[in-house]
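Quarterly update, task 2.4: G4F-bound model.
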Amino acid sequence: MNSNGRVALITGISGQDGSYLTELLLTKGYVLHGLAPYLRYGLPVDPRVTFHPCDLSDASNLSEILDQAQPDEVYHLGAQSHVKLSFEIPIHTVDVTGLGVLRILEAIRQFQNRSGKQVRFYQASSSEMFGQAVESPQNERTPFHPRSPYACAKVYAHWQTINYREAYGMFACSGILFNHESPRRGEAFVTRKITLAATRIKLGLQHELRLGNIDARRDWGFAGDYVEAMWLMLQQPEPDDYVIASGGQHSVREFLDEVFGCLDLDWKKYVVIDPAFYRPAEVETLLGDATKAREKLGWKPRVALADLARMMVESDLELARREAAAARAV
Ligand code: G4F
């Protein structure tokens, strides 16, 4: 596809969302720049993306990167995004996930002053900000009650984004995204942990799956659908904040039913509840109301949970088959 003349910069390029957003923006003809700290820990980055190493806890090279890239749009997806891990490394999490956004916003503000360019900015806010939510479903007006160092950092980052919009007139938007999954989801998140384990169990490569609170309820959607909402937010005449969610809610137990059901297995024979996977404070239930996104952005999710589970199972079954074949070959 020919270039549309626009340049986008994505932080967290080697994560799940960075990878789907890369594909979307390349099909739309963007020139892409991507940031991540250590490439070897993430998904492969498309060779058409200009890659810049950048650690959000440092970011001393951010100004230089902005001067080189001259972006029209910045999608800030980079974060320490694992909720349980944030209890173990709270300072690092708040530095990267909270202060990281301030480093970027400030670098963009200064870049705009230097270059005279207007940059459109997307902040990856999270449904975890609602935490112990005071109402259900949650929308853009629902008060926040964060329940982890990660969620507190996201609330800080969310308000800084609004602050830069109000104080400096920056085109800055937050997408308050509910859980979004895919075959590219990191292995430490519950859906992928389940699909990886179930497919390995099916092929005799694993015999049990240790999990924490399987009564937790989440609003799960497909990451490929959700990155489209990010792009739509930056195409609007005015910057604003939007909840992005499927509007459906399931427990981890129900996700286990779906996944093991696809493989004709009974998860109760394999799942072991392990207190090591419980969090000091849990978010028991989240459900999003994406009416505003539907009405203003024309966005709606396309992939239902059963299809998402099957997509992840098929992909991980292929990985498990390759692993089994490699084991037989030695
Ligand atoms: O998959 P999870 O780790 O996702 P969580 O904590 O809801 O957060 C994810 O979604 C947020 C919203 O988009 C993001 F902001 C955030 O960065 C991340 O992507 O856990 C889901 C639920 C939790 O209630 C957890 O306690 O599953 C429960 N769970 C039960 N056993 C487990 C496990 N979670 C994990 N990761 N591992 C377990 O063994």
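Highlight for this quarter: The pocket of G4F is lined by residues 81, 83-84, 126-128, 177-179, 188-190, 193, 211-214, 216, 218, 252, 277, 279, 282-283 (CB under 6 Å).
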